[in-house]
Write a structure and sequence with these properties.
16 helices, seven-stranded parallel beta sheet, Rossmann fold, about 45% helix, alpha/beta, four-stranded parallel beta sheet, about 400 residues
């Protein structure tokens, strides 16, 4: 099996050909958005970080933004800085340029303000888009494709239909030599023994258990510091309304997105995988932070399951919405791409639903626009922030 994509200088393959306008700090987000809105073919990567950060927190931000700029779905990059931030525009631009793609940089202070920065940035972005438009698609094997799996707005049918169907699609991709990722560790609590049993090695099994323990420690820390004095709920009111009654139900249902392939590695947030196959990435349960981490980790396509329905998309990676709820599919037809509720209707088997999801991945990789892309949704863009237990665990060198 093959798909049509864009060969990048570093050997990776993109399924989109964006020019990314990346602010190095939140102070430059508005100008970056203005530039992208002015130039067709450019997209802005909005975020709220880049300054007043130190230690691992700053390192995670720098790694994430650099890897997003290096992403194979991005043909070229314009870095927009303010000029006095902690993550300097020069560091960000130089880190992205290591991928071999064209990178330009401006700062608002050097340009003389927002309007002059907009004028200069739009001129640069236009030239980058013109160059990107000359790049031609080629055919590549599925070993060059990586897919992120995500869920949001979960209902009772997500764990029964949509997530297992996505798991089947992930297995099919891995069987073809591709890569799949699952994350949202705090929504997998209690499934670590199931994941560890599927680990490709004892080292990977140990990392699975350790990353889940870290997530539990984080939840305990949050609960202790909750100003209301109450323990934080692990599932939202929407989940309850959708028929998910316990954390166990949500975790076991979310775990199904991983399919049945062996876990070959556990990744830090926004790290690139060093091997093909199924990976577990350490992220929060926040949809935007989790999706951004896996996209920064190289995933070109996102499979996002939703029972209640959500319109969200990512600026540089197409997001395919999959539901197991036919009513939600009909109600939010403008936003949801695939309905696996047909299994409950009796018109399709679960295996057939998984194969349909897999075919949709290949179609989107070939260039089919997702509904989120058509409507311009880009909300799934946020960088996860470090916290004390992360500093101790990752700072000791145990995680590379």
């Amino acid at each position: 099996m093959k798909f049509w994509g864009y060969q990048r200088p570093d050997g990776r393959v993109g399924v989109r050909n964006h020019v990314a306008v990346i602010p190095s700090t939140y102070c430059a987000v508005r100008v970056a958005r203005w530039i992208a809105e002015r130039v067709q073919g450019a997209v802005a990567l909005h975020h709220s970080v880049g300054c007043s950060q130190v230690g691992l927190d700053l390192e995670m931000t720098a790694r994430t933004l650099k890897n997003l700029g290096r992403h194979p779905n991005v043909a070229a990059v314009l870095v927009v800085g303010l000029g006095c931030e902690r993550l300097t525009p020069a560091e960000l631009a130089e880190g992205i340029a290591e991928s071999g793609k064209s990178v330009e940089m401006i700062t608002i202070q050097d340009c003389g303000g927002s309007l002059k920065a907009l004028e200069a940035g739009a001129s640069i972005a236009r030239k980058l888009v013109q160059h990107a438009a000359t790049l031609k698609k080629e055919q590549f094997g599925l070993e060059h494709l990586a897919v992120a799996t995500e869920c949001g707005g979960t209902d009772g049918l997500s764990g029964l239909l949509a997530n297992p169907a996505v798991g089947i699609a992930a297995d099919m991709l891995v069987a073809e030599g591709g890569t799949a990722m699952i994350s949202e560790i705090n929504e997998l609590l209690g499934t670590e023994h199931l994941m560890a049993a599927r680990a490709a090695s004892s080292e990977v099994a140990d990392r699975i258990r350790k990353v889940v323990a870290l997530s539990e420690a984080r939840l305990a820390w949050q609960s202790e510091n909750d100003r209301t004095g109450k323990r934080l709920a692990l599932i939202s009111t929407g989940n309850f309304d959708g028929g998910v009654s316990t954390v166990v139900e949500k975790a076991l249902g979310g775990y199904k997105k991983s399919g049945a392939s062996p876990f070959v590695d556990v990744l830090r947030y926004s790290d690139l995988p060093s091997k093909r196959g199924l990976h577990l990435m350490d992220t929060s349960g926040n949809d935007a932070e989790s999706t951004t981490g896996m996209v920064a980790g190289g995933c070109q396509v996102v499979l996002f399951t939703t029972g209640r329905g959500t319109p969200t998309g990512h600026p540089i990676a197409p997001v395919i919405k999959v539901t197991g709820n036919t009513q939600s599919y009909q109600k939010m037809f403008d936003n949801i791409d695939v309905n696996t509720g047909t299994v409950l209707d009796g018109t399709m088997t679960l295996r057939q639903a998984g194969e349909e999801v897999f075919r949709e991945v290949l179609a989107v990789a070939d260039g089919k626009l997702t509904k989120a892309e058509i409507l311009g949704h880009d909300e799934l863009m946020a960088v996860w922030r470090s916290w004390p237990e992360h500093e101790r665990a990752y700072g000791c060198g145990e995680w590379g």
